[in-house]
């Protein structure tokens, strides 16, 4: 215990910024003493308490300290036994704490209730970027609560849910969240029970998600070919997003739909002739083959509406989106003017080169420093900045 006593004395004297006490067997009593020191400490940023026999009582005292401590950014409690009660207390602390960015709670038997309570905290917490809940004995119920939190949380970038009991139902709920979440970059779901059905739903979500850069689905009874296909979708995110405007027309004497794409500067990118029943999925692949861009595409109509479900559309659907009245007359149906165009997640596009960003600050930085079209076309950067800002205010994203 000499190591612990020395560390505690240094902590009390504000002499430490990082403290590693893993495998020190401090138990609840030691955790309580550390918590008391944390309430007044003003220097510690990282605390590692892995495998220390800390239970719900010790976790409760540490959680109380997090409500007042304003320097700790990383807390590691992997391999303890805090269970639901400890997770509930830590979740309550996350609702008010504004400094912690990393919380590792793997192997603590928190169950569905504990995962659900932490998920509720994520809906209001605005600082946590890394959450590890590996091997915590929760299934679809806990996964569904966490997925709901991902739909509103805008700070979490890494989520570790491996070695649990998440099935297809939980995976489907997570997939739905990925379609709107634009901050998560790393998702670990290895060694669960997702199966083919859950994998199919996740793959569909990855067609529209543009931020996930790392996805682990090993040991989930998923065919290797499906894993390879999903990995390819994830890799596309590394190439970023380009925005193109879609134009449609019909040639006289033909039912075929002429579809062309232009960048935000009005320059033609590519054009195609398709039968009305042709699916647009292959068209997107063809578009990529005719350009140097290997990442995702986002498509807008000339009036600024973004098309969020183009993968499931036919050429006729797209034509109806552009000219709803003309399309309905041709089909002898009621006017399709009420057709709802789903919107893609919020994007800020550079009008110089078409690159899209999830945050205006990133778009603005690109415009003012790295946009290649500025130098090529001799565009004034500050002028381009204002034009992009106007598009944002007009709801172009």
Description:
- The chain is of the alpha/beta class.
- It has three domains: 2-239, Leucine-rich repeat, LRR (right-handed beta-alpha superhelix); 241-331, no CATH class; 348-393, no CATH class.
- It is built from 15 helices and 15 strands.
- Strands 1-2-3-4-5-6-7-8 form an eight-stranded parallel sheet.
- Strand 10 and strand 11 form a beta hairpin.
- The longest helix is centred in the middle third of the chain and has 13 residues, at 224-236.
- The radius of gyration is 26 Å and the shape is elongated.
Beta-strand segment tally: 15
Main sheet: strand order:
1-2-3-4-5-6-7-8
Which stretches are poorly predicted, pLDDT < 50 over at least 5 residues? Answer: 325-346, 390-397
**Which structural class is indicated by helix and strand composition?**
alpha/beta
Distance between the termini: 58 Å
Q: What best-fitting shape do the alpha-carbon axes yield?
A: elongated
CATH architecture of the largest domain: Alpha-Beta Horseshoe
Based on CA atoms alone, the radius of gyration comes out at: 26 Å
Query: What percent strand?
Result: 5-15%
Could you estimate the helical fraction of the residues in percent? 40-55%
* The top level CATH class name of the largest domain: Alpha Beta
Total helices: the number is 15
Structural domain count: 3
CATH topological fold name of the largest domain: Leucine-rich repeat, LRR (right-handed beta-alpha superhelix)
What are the defining features of this structure?
7-stranded mixed β-sheet; disordered C terminus; 15 helices; Leucine-rich repeat, LRR (right-handed beta-alpha superhelix); 3 domains; alpha/beta
């Amino acid at each position: 215990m000499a190591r612990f006593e020395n560390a505690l004395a240094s902590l009390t004297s504000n002499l430490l910024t990082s403290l590693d006490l893993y495998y020190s067997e401090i138990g609840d009593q030691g955790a309580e003493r550390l918590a008391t020191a944390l309430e007044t400490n003003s220097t510690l940023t990282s605390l590692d308490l892995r495998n220390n026999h800390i239970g719900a009582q010790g976790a409760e005292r540490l959680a109380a300290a997090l409500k007042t401590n304003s320097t700790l950014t990383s807390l590691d409690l992997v391999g303890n036994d805090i269970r639901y009660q400890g997770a509930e207390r830590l979740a309550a602390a996350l609702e008010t704490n504004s400094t912690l960015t990393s919380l590792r709670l793997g192997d603590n038997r928190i169950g569905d209730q504990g995962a659900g309570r932490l998920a509720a905290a994520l809906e209001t917490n605005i600082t946590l970027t890394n959450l590890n809940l590996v091997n915590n004995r929760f299934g679809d119920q806990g996964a569904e609560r966490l997925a709901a939190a991902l739909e509103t949380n805008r700070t979490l970038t890494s989520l570790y849910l491996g070695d649990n009991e998440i099935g297809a139902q939980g995976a489907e709920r997570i997939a739905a969240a990925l379609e709107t979440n634009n901050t998560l970059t790393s998702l670990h779901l290895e060694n669960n029970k997702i199966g083919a059905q859950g994998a199919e739903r996740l793959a569909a979500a990855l067609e529209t998600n543009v931020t996930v850069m790392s996805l682990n689905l090993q040991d989930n009874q998923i065919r290797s070919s499906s894993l390879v296909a999903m990995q390819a979708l994830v890799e596309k995110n590394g190439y970023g997003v380009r925005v193109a405007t879609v134009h449609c027309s019909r040639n006289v004497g033909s039912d075929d739909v002429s579809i062309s794409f232009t960048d935000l500067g009005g320059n033609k990118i590519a054009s195609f002739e398709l039968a009305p029943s042709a699916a647009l999925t292959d068209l997107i692949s063809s578009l990529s083959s005719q350009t140097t861009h290997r990442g995702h595409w986002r498509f807008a109509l000339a009036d600024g509406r973004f098309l969020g479900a183009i993968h499931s559309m036919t050429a006729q659907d797209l034509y109806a989106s552009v000219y709803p009245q003309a399309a309905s007359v041709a089909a002898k149906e009621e006017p399709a003017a009420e057709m709802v165009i789903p919107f893609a997640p919020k994007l800020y596009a550079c009008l110089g080169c078409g690159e899209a960003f999830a945050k205006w600050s990133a778009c603005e930085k690109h415009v003012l420093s790295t946009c290649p079209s500025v130098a090529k076309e001799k565009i004034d950067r500050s002028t381009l900045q204002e034009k992009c800002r106007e598009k944002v205010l007009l709801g172009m994203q």
